[in-house]
Design brief:
Blueprint lengths: L1 H12 L3 H7 L6 H7 L6 H11 L3 H4 L9 H15 L1
Length: 85
């Protein structure tokens, strides 16, 4: 799930894997490790990736299926609070 979501985010942002790795100062073999060894990044790296794309770590891990974009989540919460007030 992690790699599928990450690849979708990379595609949506219109960047390359190499650009992501450079921007986040991650090792060149990161994708190889994640793909071939079926591993996921450390918590610190997951947080970097989530912040880079503006999504939650839960979204990256497949735990959050809705409101992938934090800005959309924030907009939703503002609407909810407006209704309550």
């Amino acid at each position: 799930m992690f790699l599928q979501r990450l690849n979708n985010l990379i595609s949506e942002k219109g960047i390359t894997r190499n650009k992501l790795l450079l921007d986040l100062q991650l090792g060149k073999k990161s994708f190889v490790n994640w793909e071939q060894r079926s591993t996921i990044p450390s918590g610190e790296t997951l947080l970097k990736i989530a912040n880079y794309f503006g999504v939650s770590v839960d979204y990256l891990l497949g735990r959050d299926k809705t409101f992938a974009d934090l800005s959309k989540r924030e907009q939703f919460l503002k609407v909810c609070y407006a209704v309550v007030e």
